[in-house]
């Protein structure tokens, strides 16, 4: 059975990041949500692969994708992607630096804390490999947004809605 601490952690990791989206702004939410959604789908696929290859393990039973990996994807991943795009889209260097900071903090500091709290531990990856696993998706996120903004129909949508 999933521990009480793990259950509370799952709730917090989903609710808190999504509460921050209330401050994102309607225009930014509309503008960046498609790229955020694409990266979440991509992340779910990556989590399924990581789950099957045993790259990490969650403490406690049952071993369930829904109670272990999915909250990490549904919680912080999309809101963080939206915020990173809002603050840095148009300046690729700034975007990469913010991603380095956020992904590095998660991979090296937060993962160590989660291991200490007995929620998750890396199994077949070290911290640097895990960092690369999450960081490479920044290029995909930026690329999807760049592609969307340069499509003529999306450009018309942005101009029409003054995004």
Can you give a write-up of this model?
This protein has 163 residues and is mainly α. The protein has one domain. It has helices spanning 4-20, 26-52, 69-88, 92-116, 127-135, 137-150, 152-160, and strands at 56-58, 120-122. A two-stranded antiparallel ribbon has the order 1-2.
Task: List descriptors.
single chain, 163 residues, mainly alpha, two-stranded antiparallel ribbon, 4% strand
- Biggest sheet, open or closed, and with what strands and sense? 2 strands, antiparallel
Count the E strands: 2
For the terminal residues, how far apart are their CA atoms? 46 Å
Side by side, the strands of the main sheet go 1-2
- General shape: elongated
List the secondary-structure elements in sequence, H or E: HHEHHEHHH
What percentage of residues falls in helices of 4 or more residues?
over 70%
Mean pLDDT: 90
Number of helices, where a helix is a run of at least 4 consecutive DSSP H or I residues: 7
Computed CA radius of gyration, to the nearest angstrom:
17 Å
Percentage of residues in strands: under 5%
* Low-pLDDT runs: none
Number of domains: 1
Structural class estimated from helices and strands: mainly alpha
Helix and strand topology:
Layout lengths: L3 H17 L5 H27 L3 E3 L10 H20 L3 H25 L3 E3 L4 H9 L1 H14 L1 H9 L3
Antiparallel strand pairs: 1-2
């Amino acid at each position: 059975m999933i521990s009480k601490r793990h259950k509370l952690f799952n709730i917090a990791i989903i609710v808190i990041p999504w509460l921050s989206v209330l401050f994102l702004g309607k225009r930014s939410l509309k503008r960046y949500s498609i790229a955020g959604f694409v990266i979440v789908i991509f992340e779910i696929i990556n989590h399924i692969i990581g789950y099957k290859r045993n790259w990490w393990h969650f403490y406690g039973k049952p071993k369930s994708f829904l109670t272990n990996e999915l909250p990490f994807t549904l919680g912080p991943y999309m809101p963080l992607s939206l915020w990173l795009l809002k603050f840095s889209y148009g300046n690729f260097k700034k975007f990469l630096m913010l991603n380095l900071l956020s992904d590095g903090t998660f991979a090296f500091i937060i993962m160590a804390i989660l291991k200490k709290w007995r929620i998750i531990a890396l199994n077949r990856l070290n911290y640097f490999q895990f960092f690369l696993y999450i960081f490479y998706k920044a290029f995909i996120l930026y690329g999807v947004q760049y592609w969307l903004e340069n499509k003529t129909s999306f450009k018309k949508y942005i101009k029409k809605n003054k995004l």
